[in-house]
Design a protein that fits this description.
The longest helix has 20 residues. By secondary structure, the chain is of the alpha+beta class. The chain is elongated and about 55 Å long.
């Protein structure tokens, strides 16, 4: 039984450690941290989000929220990177 568990665990580790999965997990962590920082109640204004080459792009349905987030953009970037313990997010585009 332990051998089967070990084989399954090794398989899962190999799959998870593939580059395409690592990138997706990092992307999900970034989205989660962003939503945590702005507050769960404001996530209803997010229309679309994506992360590519160090840039987090967020499309919002509220111009007021967009302006507020623009004002705090550097703080948000710093908090995401600090929480993830990596300098991953270089910029945030708010549209």
């Amino acid at each position: 039984m332990d051998n089967n568990f070990s084989n399954i665990q090794n398989f899962i580790n190999k799959v998870v450690n593939q580059d395409k999965f690592k990138k997706k997990f990092i992307e999900l962590d970034i989205f989660e941290k962003f939503e945590e920082i702005i507050g769960k109640s404001l996530t209803i204004y997010i229309k679309e989000k994506r992360f590519m080459e160090g840039i987090l792009t967020v499309k919002l349905t509220s111009s007021v929220l967009r302006n507020e987030l623009l004002f705090n953009k550097n703080n948000i970037i710093d908090r995401i990177n600090k929480d993830l313990k990596k300098e991953i997010v270089k910029d945030i585009l708010l549209r």
